[in-house]
Write a structure and sequence with these properties.
By secondary structure, this protein is an alpha/beta fold. The protein has helices spanning about 30-40, 70-80, 100-110, 135-145, 170-185, 210-215, 240-250, 315-325; strands at about 1-5, 25, 25-30, 45-50, 65, 90, 115, 130-135, 160-165, 190-195, 220-225, 230-235, 255-260, 265-270, 290-295, 305-310, 330. It folds into two domains: about 1-145, Spore Coat Polysaccharide Biosynthesis Protein SpsA, Chain A (Alpha-Beta Complex); about 160-330, Rossmann fold, CATH 3.40.50. The protein is about 25% helix and about 20% strand. The two termini are about 25 Å apart. The model has no long low-confidence stretch (mean pLDDT about 90).
Length: about 325
């Protein structure tokens, strides 16, 4: 397997001094990373560096700039992928405590995968700048760059899906909105799907968009306005939420689905006594493993999954954690 060391970043926290050239214990971080990568791949790695003096940092290495400049760390990954044959182990040059054991585990575990990333304690849960990328990632990253998405994780990140269910007027929308706001606050890309029981309103009668749809009988009507874009599309059959997410919500970190209670998605149920004496969950019919949690005002209700009361402290934060951890993961 090939190796590549990505020497990018503006080094703002280092006063403009290139991060990899900082010495730690008498050795430059760059040299530590190069040696670790070479040890596990058996050959000198490629150095991806845009700085004019980059080729002088390690004259023994082949050094090239990003093939698509100005695309951030994703551009560095893309350059490493398309600059050789077969998969490539990509490592950022500012990882002084990188271990050979970790890199070996990445190489050994990457067989059969287009991308193989280690788990981390970071917000994304994985580390894209210490990972193995296969040739198929080249076209995936190209599509991502065409969308203007420069997230290093974007090209390989899986979308997660969670369903919010409950009886009519139980408060499904209220919970979904609160959960979406909490996850957005954590900087996730949150998108939503609502299962409606009646046709959506295409503007007011006589308005332009209404006329496009009702008088023109257009198959699709796309309305573009300041800060928003709305699409109406005629459909013969109702689609299930996973297919909808794949078609319309590309790039989401997590999709929250309101309704679709029969869809094969993990569920968080809202149960209010005012909406019905019993929740949708029925222990005689349903698998409790399909329910991630329930929020209720019934103080006597208990189940074989987490049950929260509206009066509990910080239940929303806990449910947001559960929603992320237990969501259905859609492969990229």
């Amino acid at each position: 397997m090939r190796g590549a060391v990505l020497a990018g970043g503006a080094a703002r926290r280092y006063g403009g001094h290139p991060k990899g050239l900082v010495e730690l214990g008498g050795r430059r971080i760059l040299d530590r990373v190069v040696d670790a990568v070479a040890t596990v791949t058996g050959e000198a790695p490629l150095l991806v560096a845009n700085a004019p003096d980059g080729p002088t940092w390690r004259r023994d290495l082949r050094t090239i700039p990003d093939v698509r400049p100005g695309q951030g760390s994703l551009g560095g990954i893309y350059t490493a992928v398309v600059s050789g044959v077969g998969p490539v182990l990509c490592v950022a040059w500012d990882m002084p405590f990188l271990t050979v054991e970790l890199l070996r585990a990445l190489l050994e575990g990457s067989t059969g995968w287009d991308a193989f990333l280690p788990e981390s304690d970071g917000r994304r849960g994985v580390e894209p700048l210490c990972a193995v990328y296969g040739p198929a990632c080249g076209s995936a990253i190209e599509r991502q760059l065409a969308r203007g998405d420069l997230r290093a994780i974007g090209g390989v990140a899986a979308t997660r899906m969670m369903s919010i269910i409950g009886r009519k007027n139980a408060g499904k929308t209220t919970l979904l909105v609160a959960l979406a706001a909490e996850l957005s606050r954590r900087k996730f890309r949150v998108m939503t799907i609502k299962h409606g029981t009646h046709p959506a309103d295409t503007d007011q009668r006589g308005k332009d968009s209404w006329r496009h749809w009702h008088e023109g009988h257009a198959e699709r009507v796309l309305m573009e306005g300041p800060g928003q874009r709305v699409l109406w599309e005629r459909t013969e059959h109702e689609s299930e939420p996973v297919a909808l997410a794949r078609r319309y919500l590309e790039g989401a970190d997590i999709v929250l689905v309101e309704g679709f209670k029969r869809a094969p998605l993990p569920k968080i149920e809202v149960y209010r006594l005012a909406a019905g004496p019993e929740p949708l969950f029925d222990a005689a019919v349903h698998d409790p493993g399909d329910w991630v949690a329930m929020v209720t005002d019934n103080s006597k209700y208990h189940a074989d999954f987490p049950v929260f009361r509206f009066s509990d402290t910080a239940w929303l934060v806990t449910i947001a954690n559960l929603a992320w951890d237990r969501a259905k993961i859609l492969p990229p």
